[in-house]
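Researcher: Sequence recovery benchmark, item below. Answer with residues only.
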């Protein structure tokens, strides 16, 4: 059976994230939330994170500031700040596999993670999680992303979708309709990540996926 994994980036967004949680609960779907450190520090965000965690969703690291992609500079201090400080903010709410998703666009490669970042993640035992279905939930009209997501899914054995709490929350009925349609078309919705989207697992790189030159360049 073809699979679908749903993930939410750039939260938490108190209010909107709760609407997403309600929609997921109404369909018995477990998902992952890749949260940003700066957002975790905002008023009310801690309570939202607690609720995400209590519902059984996975909380994952999506950098401290969501600034320039970590592949764009070799500043080791910035790597530790962006990854490590966000992980510290998550603390015990983090999934034990320390899922980390770099910010940036396109397929996995050097533009997303510098050699310094790869070395830092390996030393810290992180699992790097990418994506293979980004339907553009920011594109107007905002309720059109499910059609693009489903079109991509049709060509994949296991789709890892990226959407955003602050965009989907205000129109959560779009999310429930999407889930219903995916299931009606025969997709099984799972919480795990497809192996093709985890180039590093608990600190170990899959040589079949990661650009080997990048790993060799790591200090
Ligand atoms: Zn992001």
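Model:
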């Amino acid at each position: 059976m073809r699979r679908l994994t749903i993930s939410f980036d750039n939260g938490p967004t108190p209010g909107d994230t709760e609407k997403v949680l309600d929609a997921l609960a109404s369909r018995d779907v477990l998902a992952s939330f890749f949260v940003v450190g700066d957002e975790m520090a905002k008023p009310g965000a801690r309570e939202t994170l607690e609720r995400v965690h209590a519902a059984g969703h996975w909380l994952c690291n999506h950098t401290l500031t969501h600034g320039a992609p970590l592949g764009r500079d070799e500043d080791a201090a910035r790597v530790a700040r962006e990854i490590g400080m966000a992980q510290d903010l998550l603390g015990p709410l983090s999934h034990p596999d320390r899922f980390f998703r770099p910010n940036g666009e396109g397929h996995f490669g050097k533009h997303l993670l510098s050699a310094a970042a790869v070395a830092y993640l390996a030393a810290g035992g992180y699992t790097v999680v990418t994506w293979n279905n980004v339907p553009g939930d920011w594109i107007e009209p905002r309720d059109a992303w499910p059609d693009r997501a489903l079109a991509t899914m049709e060509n994949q054995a296991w789709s890892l979708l990226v959407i955003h709490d602050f965009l989907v929350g205000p129109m959560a009925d779009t999310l429930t309709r999407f889930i219903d349609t995916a299931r009606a078309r025969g997709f099984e919705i799972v919480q795990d990540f497809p192996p093709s989207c985890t180039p590093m697992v608990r600190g170990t790189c899959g040589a079949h996926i990661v650009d080997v030159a990048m790993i060799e360049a790591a200090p």
